[in-house]
Design goal:
Elements (H helix, E strand, L loop, with lengths): L3 H9 L3 H15 L4 H9 L3 H8 L5 E7 L4 H12 L3 H9 L3 E7 L1 H13 L3 E4 L1
Antiparallel strand pairs: 1-2, 1-3
Helix pairs in contact: 2-4, 3-4, 5-6, 5-7
Length: 126
Amino acid sequence: MADIKKLAEELGKLTVLEAAELVKTLEEEWGVSAAAPVAVAAVAGNGGAAAEAAEEKTEFDVIIKDAGPKKIEVIKAIRQITNLGLVEAKAMAETAGSKVLEQVGKEAAADAKSKLEAAGAVVELA
């Protein structure tokens, strides 16, 4: 039998996107409704994130919080993602809170976030 406390602790560490993916996986594999995973996540002390996962967002903004120490790499990543010119990408990298992409799908936002983070930036999806 699984250690219930350890399982609850791990569920409490899930991000909103991970919790949504868990809900989808459980629905597909076990044929259960989203109400059951939400109840489990609420027990884990992560009720707010589980409720957000049940109301999964479909459009996201990719926001740079900090370009980090590798600003040139971040500028290159911004240019690759957005097709902006060098001056515009540099200004975006140097301005905390800049929206690299607005109202994009989950996959595009996750892809952009991973590219920017690989370049050294601190990124948030909103």
